[in-house]
Amino acid sequence: MKSKKNLYLKDWMRRLVNIVILLVFTLFWACEKVTKNPIGSDFIGRNSGSAFELPRVPLSKGNPRFEGIIPQSLGEGEELLLGRMNGFVYRSLLRFEVDLDSMGIEENSIDELKIESLSLSLSVRSSQNKGKNDISIGKPGIPWDELSTFVDTLSGIETEVHFVPIQGALAVLKGDSVLMVDLPESFIKSALVSGPSNVEIELILLPDESSDFILELISGDALDLLESENRPKVEIHYSMEGKELRYVTEIKEDTYWGERFRGGPNLDQLFLSTGIVYSSILHFKLPNSIPIGSTINSVKLELDVNDEYSFFDVFSFRIDQITIDPLTGDSTFVVIENRQLKQGGSNFDLSLSFRPIVQNWLSKRYSNHGLVLRPVQTYSKMEWVALRNANLRLIYSTPPNF
Amino acid sequence: MKRFPFLARQRQIAMYGSRQLGCIVSVLILIVFFSNCTEAQTVFSFNGVGAVIQRFDARSRGMGGSGRALVDGENFSSANPALLAAFLRASLNSFYSVQLRSLNDAKKNHYNFTDGDIGAFQLVLPIRRGTVLGIGLEPVSILNFELVDMVGTGTLQHELTVEGSGGIQALSLGIGYRASRKVYLGARLDLIAFGTINETWTKIYNDPSILFSQDLILRSHRGILPTLGVIYTPNRSWSVGFDIQAGQKVRQTRKLRNLFHGLGIDNEIKSESNVRFPFKLGSGMVYTTGYRWLVALDAERAFWAQTEKGRHDTINLSGGLLYRTGNQDLLVESKRIELMAGIHYRSLYFQTVSGLQISEIGGSLGLAVPLGRGSSKFRYVVELGKRGDVIRSGISEGFILQTLSFSGWVR
């Protein structure tokens, strides 16, 4: 009995071992790498969904937003701005010193001084002359220096600068390179006669109300080797004791500032600016034709820069999403991306960061309150960008038929 | 006991059956645990509810898929619920399939795929004289489909990847009743509550600035599929069986989730509809010489065309034979091995672009080895066949399907 049992157990073990071997074999045989089936697209029998491009989702609403004035002292910059554009006016202040001793004029012989001509020459770095470019010259009525900001920090609005026009003064743009300001001889003669031996002369340059231009002038603080030779200069041609003499001196101090004109930019104009900070609110309404369940694959924001009405080298800005608290109604701006604008218009691929936001709008999980473009403030100069033709370019894919 | 003296002897001598079965089940569990294979099925299975599973055990598979009238207390096929009534002892059955598929298309491209599958897990419990319960977790349909294709033109051209997997599983509750010495009755309810068909549709664009999209479609089902069966054995040699499954609607819930749903940015889209399973009629016939030889023929007709436009009614024809070695008397030591062979023809219900129906032909060979002196058996079946036709359906799919099964009494 025992031997029969042992035989039986041996037989059983042998069978079990054979079975296990077979199982292991089939396990590894079955578990080969499964490659994707390239055949069989005809057997889907359902629409897999399609991809669509909306090349232009236009603005449903776009307007500038005044965010305040940043007090900036621009006197130590390398440029002076002068002109009027986009609802802003830029004025420059200059101060130069006339040294009688350097002119060779003694105090008791000043009556013999005859001023032939007095001119101020400013080199133009760049200009945008759209229309009239009449410039007025005056004598400022407020104390100032290169650190002045011309902003009332309590009220947050521009300071009013009074001046007295100088009769007979004339500013002429010669070509596109030099602004010549001719001052009447009586203007300086009276200063020289009544003042000490070192006489400070102050001027304010400002565009006429009907003007439409911008001049970027090289300031007295220009450091560039080439530009330093073109710093503002005052040249006096005079005669003394029958001798014709010439006196040249550089500007001692200068600065400029900007202020809004008649409320600032038009409300239908998209505008970004530093200093007098303007952002632009963009609202794109997604078309109802996008089916639910669709996926946004690509989002591109296209901004066309109106170069004729813009002034910048490379303009840094950020794109924020606007959210509104449904309870309080408070708006919040949430940064999406930081970007830079260059001359000639830009096309920004916002897919990575903005795609989820547009998807939220599409699914109506979040209300579409639009975007805001906000300038990144620079403290060395005033810049601005006039935008037009803002639109979104979307690519989306519809889900498969299910 | 007096009515079935042969079976009483089987019970006496099967001392080691349950221990062996426990060992085998442990091995099977290990295989499942360590197996990370995807599920196996045909390239045609993407349509509808997937490829419908033939509700036959390994022995019937070895006989070409026939045997719905083979009422001997060892037939775990759930195609005919009346087969339950023949079980005299609590029994367990499970099986595992692995498949090699070879695809050819009209462009003479050729591809091979291998995958594995866990089949049904069934438990049979006689509860009283003549009445037997059957409980099982069985697949009703299965789907495995993967596709890569280039779609579209220009800047929006993209690589489309479609992956479909899953299937419908049912908790199968059956009852068999031996009404008389010659008549076996049965009923089964398939409670469809498990299993999900998952589809992932991915579009990757050639233009790298266009980000990809991925849509996930989940289909789950709820419903009941009832089946009735009857087997009549006029004598020891012959038996005939019939089964009928009522056409039923099953509730399908579909959920679409795009890529952003997982990020909490977009909503899930849900919809529901009814999916219809067809009215089915099956019949079978068995002739046996006694212990040594057995021949079975089966036919089944399912009316799929009424369930959805584009589908086709199907017909399954199968025939097989079984040969046993050794001595019929279990008290006599001998090697009792079963050898099986069969052929089948099946037409499939799938909608096709051409509108022509896909058919399948195949043959099978099988081997069953007893484990111990009880009725525990290990079965190994190889089925070879071909589905589809390059000209009629654009693709032909050859397959080699291996099935390994363990069954036996539960102590």
Uncertain stretches of chain A: 30-36
Give the DSSP E fraction of chain B (strand runs of 2 or more residues).
over 45%
End-to-end separation of chain B: 18 Å
Largest interface: A-B, 53 and 80 residues
Task: Work out the radius of gyration of chain A.
Answer: 37 Å
The overall pLDDT of chain A, averaged over residues, is: 84
Compute the number of strand runs of chain A. Answer: 22
Describe the structure.
The complex is a heterodimer of chains A (402) and B (411). Chain A is mainly beta and 402 residues long. Chain A has helices at residues 2-30, 100-103, 185-194, 225-228, 351-363; strands spanning 51-69, 79-85, 88-99, 114-129, 135-140, 151-152, 157-158, 163-165, 170-174, 178-183, 198-207, 213-218, 233-240, 243-260, 270-273, 276-284, 295-305, 315-324, 331-341, 346-349, 371-375, 384-397. Chain A contains five helices and 22 strands. In chain A, strands 1, 15, 16, 17, 18, 19, 20, 21 and 22 form a nine-stranded antiparallel sheet that branches. Chain A is elongated, with a radius of gyration of 37 Å. Mean pLDDT of chain A is 84; it is low at 30-36. In chain B, 48% of the residues are buried. Mean pLDDT of chain B is 85; it is low at 30-40. Chain B is mainly β and 411 residues long. Chains A and B meet through helix 1, strand 1, strand 17 and helix 5 of A and helix 2, strand 2, strand 3, strand 4 and strand 5 of B.
Summary keywords:
heterodimer; A: 402 residues; mainly beta; 9-stranded antiparallel beta sheet; 6-stranded antiparallel barrel; 5 helices; B: 411 residues; 4 helices; 18 strands
Indicate the topology.
The complex is a heterodimer of chains A (402) and B (411).
Chain A: H1 2-30, E1 51-69, E2 79-85, E3 88-99, H2 100-103, E4 114-129, E5 135-140, E6 151-152, E7 157-158, E8 163-165, E9 170-174, E10 178-183, H3 185-194, E11 198-207, E12 213-218, H4 225-228, E13 233-240, E14 243-260, E15 270-273, E16 276-284, E17 295-305, E18 315-324, E19 331-341, E20 346-349, H5 351-363, E21 371-375, E22 384-397
Antiparallel strand pairs in A: 1-16, 1-22, 2-3, 2-12, 3-11, 3-14, 4-10, 4-12, 4-13, 5-8, 5-11, 6-7, 9-10, 13-14, 15-22, 16-21, 17-20, 17-22, 18-19, 18-21
Chain B: H1 5-13, H2 17-34, E1 51-52, H3 58-62, E2 91-105, E3 110-128, E4 131-151, E5 158-178, E6 183-194, E7 196-205, E8 213-232, E9 238-245, E10 248-257, E11 269-277, E12 280-288, E13 293-302, E14 314-324, E15 338-347, E16 359-370, E17 377-389, H4 390-393, E18 395-409
Antiparallel strand pairs in B: 1-4, 2-3, 2-18, 3-4, 4-5, 5-6, 5-7, 6-8, 7-8, 8-9, 8-10, 9-12, 10-11, 12-13, 13-14, 14-15, 15-16, 16-17, 17-18
